[in-house]
Amino acid sequence: MRNRVKILVTFALENEFAPWRAMHRFRAVKWGGAEAFFAEVGAAEVGVVLTGVGPKQAALRASEVIRTEFDSISLCVSSGLAGALRPNYQIAQVLAARTVYSEVPRADLQSKTLKSSNALVSFAEECGATVVDQFHSANRVIARAEEKQHLGLTADAVEMESFEIFLEAAASGIPAVAVRAVSDLSNENLPLDMGEVLTDDGKLSIPRVVGQVALHPAVLPDLLKLGQQSKRAAESLAQFLERYIAMVSDRAAALETNTSAVIR
Length: 264
Fold this sequence. Notes:
By secondary structure, the protein is α/β, with parallel strands linked by helices. It has one domain: Rossmann fold (3-Layer(aba) Sandwich), CATH 3.40.50. Helices cover 34% and strands 26% of the residues. It contains seven helices and ten strands. The protein has helices spanning 14-21, 55-69, 118-126, 145-151, 162-171, 206-215, 220-250; strands spanning 5-11, 27-31, 34-41, 44-50, 75-84, 94-102, 113-115, 130-137, 157-159, 176-184. Strands 5-9-8-6-10 form a five-stranded mixed beta barrel. Helix 2 packs parallel to helix 5. The N and C termini lie far apart (42 Å).
């Protein structure tokens, strides 16, 4: 029996992972220094890590796994939900980015752009993802439609974690790809200031959400709409990951060994 390919998949939050988690018997384990969930998917052994929202939390959680387990990880998928930055992307559409850009200044890097594995992007396209040029990894939640449209001049979707995850993967020579499903459109404002409803470790606080709704009850319809869109997007992402992990694990021998690299 052939050895199973070990794949690291990251999500920021539990609700992003929930539809895929329901499709398999993921078991909670300690992986390196992080809490993880493992299941066999296709020919792969998949380890899922929930990083929490934001670059700081993503860097911490990714490093806890990759720096101790790098020699056993075949590839990394940074996944979850994202906001569209251009009007041609729709709710629940799965996007795979060729590059990820960080808006955070980094004195230790020559470039603020990291590249996905060409092979992993190609496989994503075969599995139904729309290949785009760039994700913008923000250091805060981008809530206003005007700001999304401004960022859309240079990027296709906005999220917060992929750059730091790519950085950790690249340091260990692990091929990586960023795959996200659209949860909000480029012309939509987010109903809440997400900075007010996240905990210090990047988790969503339901009591804080309730508190914000109590202070601003007019946002409730838009908040429910966002919840429905996010659920659709997470379900779409789960279906994609089923196809994608099966394909990638079957073709693992064709992957380049070190394709997550800084664009110079």
